[in-house]
Amino acid sequence: MASISNWVRYMAHKLEYSLTLSLKNHTREKLSERELIGIVWKNLFYGRITYLHSGKGQEMTPTMGTNDNTLLVRKLPYVDTRYVFVGDAVVLKDPNETNKYLVRRLAALEGSEMISSDEKDEPFVLEKDQCWVVAENKEIKPKEAYDSRTFGPVSMSDIVGRAIYCLRTAVDHGPVSNSEFAMEEDSPILAVELNVDEMAKDHKA
């Protein structure tokens, strides 16, 4: 059971997410004040700020297993350098198939100079709102890894969440190792919304 301090921090995160989502809807759809308050209330008291994502593949071994995995993913109020950090395992839209999603490690953010180990490649700097994501499996050759080394930089807006817990099998599961700051920020959300039994039911393996 989550502690009182975790509940307080969790509700603060949830309020921030609810307000942000509501304001985005208001900007896009020009909601009335009553509709805006209704959305905030609904998201705050009935919504969740995590969702389950199923994925497989050897690219993210050892964080994820080679077979089916069920991830608990935190929804982010904004996707910028205040909310995602180098080292985070992020869920993002596939750059080549936007109806599919990938899980990759965030390796660099806007303003970072990218230098290739191949001398033929020219160094370059990531532009505003760009990031660089990589597969985690060190045994995969760079040119065979489906990540920024093959498809290039991706837009920060393509990131939809951060993986915070992974269920590989019914007996093999645990928190995802992210940046230190992200793990501290996500800890109350994990304490309140993690339900391993629910994840196991959703698991396809």
How is the secondary structure organized here?
Layout: H1 4-29, H2 33-45, E1 50-55, E2 69-75, E3 89-93, E4 101-109, E5 113-114, E6 124-125, E7 130-134, H3 148-151, E8 154-155, E9 159-169, E10 172-175, H4 180-193, H5 196-202
Antiparallel strand pairs: 1-2, 2-9, 3-4, 3-9, 4-7, 5-6, 7-8, 9-10
Helix pairs in contact: 1-2, 1-4
Supply the CATH class of the largest domain.
Mainly Beta
Instruction: Give the overall shape.
Output: globular
Strand share of the residues? 25-35%
Low-confidence stretches: none
Count of DSSP-assigned helices: 5
- Using the CA coordinates, give the radius of gyration: 18 Å
Name the helicity range: 25-40%
The string of secondary-structure elements, in order, is HHEEEEEEEHEEEHH
Instruction: Assign the CATH topology of the largest domain.
Output: Umud Fragment, subunit A
CATH architecture of the largest domain: Ribbon
Structural class computed from helices and strand pairing:
alpha+beta
Q: For the residues shown, what is the average pLDDT?
A: 88
Q: What is the oligomer described by this structure?
A: single chain
Taking the alpha carbons of the first and last residues, their distance comes to 28 Å
CATH superfamily of the largest domain: Umud Fragment, subunit A
Number of domains: 2
What is the number of E strands? 10
Characterize the biggest β-sheet.
8 strands, antiparallel
Protein name: Mitochondrial inner membrane protease subunit 1
Keywords: Hydrolase, Protease
Organism: Noccaea caerulescens (Alpine penny-cress)
InterPro entries: LexA/Signal_pep-like_sf (IPR036286), Mitochondrial_IM_protease (IPR053307), Peptidase_S26 (IPR019533)
